[in-house]
Amino acid sequence: MASTSAPLTLPVLPLDDEVVLPGMVVPLDLNDPDVRAAVEAAQAAARGQTGKPRVLLVPRIDGTYAGIGVLGTVEQVGRLADGDPGALIRARRRVQIGAGTTGPGAALWVEGTQVDDSDPDPLPGAVTELVKEYKALATSWLRKRGAWQVVDRVQQIDDVGALADNSGYSPFLSTAQKVELLETTDPVARLKLAVQWLSEHLAEQDVAESIAKDVQEGVDKQQREFLLRRQLEAVRKELREINGESEGEESDDYRARVEAADLPEKVREAALKEVDKLERSSDQSPEGSWIRTWLDTVLELPWSERTEDAYDIQGAKSVLDAEHAGLDDVKERITEYLAVRKRRTDRGLGVVGGRRGGAVLALVGPPGVGKTSLGESVAHAMGRKFVRVALGGVRDEAEIRGHRRTYVGALPGRIVRAIKEAGSMNPVVLLDEIDKVGSDFRGDPAAALLEVLDPAQNHTFRDHYLEVELDLSDVVFLATANVLEAIPEALLDRMDLVRLDGYTEDEKVVIARDHLLPRQLERSGLNGDEVTVEEDALRKLAGEYTREAGVRNLERAITRVLRKVAAQHELGDRELPFTVGAENLRELIGRPHHVPESAQDPAERRTAVPGVATGLAVTGAGGDVLFVEASLADPETGAAGLTLTGQLGDVMKESAQIALSFLRSHGAELELPVADLKERGVHIHFPAGAVPKDGPSAGVTMTTALASLLSGRLVRTDVAMTGEVSLTGRVLPIGGVKQKLLAAHRAGVTTVIIPKRNEADLDDVPAEVLAKLDVHPVTDVRQVLDLALAPASAPAEVPVAA
Length: 802
Ligand SMILES: Nc1ncnc2c1ncn2[C@@H]1O[C@H](COP(=O)(O)OP(=O)(O)OP(=O)(O)O)[C@@H](O)[C@H]1O
Description:
Elements: E1 4-16, E2 25-29, H1 33-46, E3 54-61, E4 64-65, E5 68-79, E6 85-101, E7 109-115, H2 125-144, H3 148-156, H4 160-166, H5 175-183, H6 187-242, H7 254-260, H8 265-280, H9 286-300, H10 313-323, H11 328-346, E8 360-364, H12 371-382, E9 386-390, H13 397-401, H14 414-422, E10 428-432, H15 445-453, E11 461-462, E12 469-470, E13 476-481, H16 489-492, E14 495-499, H17 505-523, E15 531-533, H18 535-545, H19 552-570, E16 578-580, H20 585-589, E17 612-619, E18 622-632, E19 642-645, H21 650-670, H22 675-679, E20 682-685, H23 699-711, E21 719-721, E22 724-725, E23 731-732, H24 737-746, E24 751-755, H25 767-772, E25 774-778, H26 781-788
Helix pairs in contact: 2-3, 2-6, 4-6, 7-8, 8-9, 10-11, 10-12, 17-18, 17-19, 21-23, 23-26
The protein binds adenosine-5'-triphosphate.
Adenosine-5'-triphosphate binds at residues 324-327, 367-373, 480, 482, 511, 515, 550-552, 555.
């Protein structure tokens, strides 16, 4: 509690807009007349006395004195740091100012009483807490300023009032606040004030700091960006110099490029709109880069490029003849197609063919029969550019029609890319493997293709990415497929089909001699004078080293032979010129892979046991022979009923049921022990179990295999068969006769059984193949059994008497 003691009379040292609190030591400038007067008065009064000269330090705010001053002792008089005369004064304790009085010297003298502002004793707990709080706050503030020594000093002050007064040093307190501190004589109240102001200041400082930090970071980022940009610019400049470009031809000048390009009016408008957008968008924005990619695509499209059609039908026919051997009917169909097209264009009718009118020529056949290369020849014949669009495995509509530009990484569809690649608006576009397009949740690519192929729509084809119309009406579309059945119905409707069923051995030899060999010789760096391949070698390659409808593997085999010869020559092991004969093949490329069944050791033939018959089938790879195996389960251990294996489709399963039913009902008549069929389980298997198979045409083969099994009679090795069987045993017609007969011939079969009603199809089969085959058209499955089953206990290869 503040109380008073004996009065004092002291010279006033006025402090203008400045406050000194007890405990502080301050240097004061003696050039100031008020300071000088007070100090000199104090010195005079103290002369002859013990104790230091004493003054009363009183803040004078706007000319008015505060009500409380501080008794100060003059510790030292001398020079200040700047060389001026000064006095060092230690402020000691509060003094309540009383009335003015007179005294010696120029100074103003007043009376005052000392204020007793000593701490309460004992300290209440709350005050101890307050002391701790102040010390913690002061420490954290001082630490921030790096004032470590002061931290220690503050920590050592125990006196409550002195602690509060110590904040007189705080630069953040206003003069008014310091006066308030001075005039608050209760030490606890004073410390409360000090705590409040200090914590306010610290909070403000935190905010200020975080703002400053944010500002600094922003500045740093801008600075970094600026620096990076400068570097980028420098790199660009350097690159331009390396590439010999001058400053002016910045490839970014899209407006000029669009203006200069020969674009259709609507496309130009759309492109300029995008350029506007681009100029508005910032350099680095993702939108900018999308727009640039789009503009590049548009500018790269050959909008006004068109090749001149310069062909007459005679010339076109010679090109086709020169590039492909054989295929006479196919080439004829293509020639007709070209003739019609040319007439219609010459008369300005356009190419609209209508439904089934054949706007699109589809080449259907097994791999390697030359579908793709025929497409290329069509382009040569017409004098147009050629592009191939592979459709195998395309399931997404966007592949055909493009992604919308809002997609990340959007691209135009394959049709647009094909036109770009062709570099003209009227190329020949080959839609390869159109039977392999699928459809799923990503839309139906077939529907998009339909629009591409439809002459009524395709002059305004819209790609999702491009968004501007593209005129496809002058494009010649061709399609290829392996399997007719797999082409989506709607597409099939628009197509004019041309079948390529595969080649005979003679045809392959001619193709190899006239086309494959010369091409591969060139690729192997050899010429015809150095290496010749005899025809019998080519025939052996076609017949024994490969077994295929087309000539792709044959071409590979030829390549292997030539590579070997070239390598041997380089190593000095082979003199050139050299003629490759059939007898050299084994030494050059090893043993043949495909030996006809009839050439096998009888015991190793597939048909060496009862229950195995040879059938004929058509797969995606062309015609093929396939073996059907039947077995009966042990009556003791096996399950009854019919088991079918080999990935068979429903139709094929049904024809197995029919074969079984037929035998059950006609067993007696056929002299077969069909009772076995009742008691024992039957298993029919089609080897090559991984390949899915379907269709009714294996009916006769399954019946024959079962009959062979029951009778114990072998099926003749040289016989292969095809045909559907009815419940009454009639043999019904099937498809793919030509491919099947070619396959039978390739496999070395000599006798073929076909349904009588397919006899007309024999006209399509090359004469040389027919000449080598003994073809039996039949109406009833009993005839099949008679022809195919060897007599009981006779060796299987007994030939049928012609
Ligand atoms: N009749 C032919 N005359 C000349 N060369 C041919 C003939 N048939 C095929 N070829 C050649 O055989 C090779 C394979 O033909 P291509 O690639 O056109 O087969 P494809 O039927 O398109 O097969 P895929 O269906 O696998 O694409 C080509 O190098 C082609 O030139």
